[in-house]
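Per your request, structure below.
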């Protein structure tokens, strides 16, 4: 077993890199950047509705589309080892805000315009999902002179909720305000047999953009319900 252990440990530590083709943080960031045409999506201003303002403290001047780090944790017990290796990818927060703004503008003609009736609406995106991890979990069970090991590779979102506050400035100078939280419905997704890391990342990015749009639509529907209530009720 002494002779087998070093080889097996090395194989386990590098199994993720074998699956992903010698993956590095730089390769991941370069690929994610290409998914957004090598630029951070801009908040839609050309079609901006004059009485709706979208802002966010999450927006910065950072031009990097994503920032990826690598982390490995090991649990070496007597007869059981667990190796958890992950690439943690943090997307530029402006991506979520831009998707939110685009979806809000799309829904202006689907009830929101009629609900606010020309009053000034201010929306502030305080929190939005922006991080996911490419994870490889390897388990090793030592059986006398032999060892059994298996791995699971999957994409893990951080499952952060969408939190947006609103202020509706009415014509008589009164204000309706509040905050709405939309639960994140993202879930872990296993890599398919022989699926490459590029394919898995591309699928996640597509799903991520779609999920933010879906969360925005759910937010707008809840917002319209609250704005239709008397001011005292909407403020609760």
């Amino acid at each position: 077993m002494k002779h087998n252990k070093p080889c097996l440990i090395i194989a386990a530590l590098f199994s993720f890199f074998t699956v992903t083709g010698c993956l590095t943080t730089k390769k991941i960031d370069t690929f994610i950047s290409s998914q957004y045409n090598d630029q951070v999506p801009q908040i839609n201003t050309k079609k901006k509705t004059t009485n709706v303002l979208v802002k966010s403290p999450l927006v910065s001047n950072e031009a990097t589309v994503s920032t990826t780090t690598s982390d490995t944790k090991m649990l070496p017990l007597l007869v059981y080892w667990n190796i958890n290796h992950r690439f943690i990818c943090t997307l530029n927060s402006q991506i979520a805000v831009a998707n939110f703004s685009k979806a809000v503008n799309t829904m202006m003609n689907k009830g929101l315009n009629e609900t606010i009736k020309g009053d000034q609406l201010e929306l502030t995106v305080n929190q939005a999902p922006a991080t996911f991890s490419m994870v490889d979990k390897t388990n090793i069970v030592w059986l006398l002179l032999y060892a059994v090991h298996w791995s699971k590779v999957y994409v893990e979102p951080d499952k952060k909720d969408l939190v947006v506050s609103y202020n509706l400035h009415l014509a008589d100078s009164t204000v309706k305000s509040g905050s709405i939280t939309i639960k994140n419905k993202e879930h872990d997704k296993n890599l398919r047999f022989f699926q490459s890391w590029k394919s898995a990342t591309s699928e996640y990015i597509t799903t991520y953009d779609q999920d933010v749009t879906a969360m925005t639509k759910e937010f707008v529907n809840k917002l319209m319900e609250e704005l239709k209530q008397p001011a005292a009720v909407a403020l609760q």
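The helical segments are 4-13, 15-20, 25-35, 93-106, 112-116, 197-227, 231-234.

Regards,
D.
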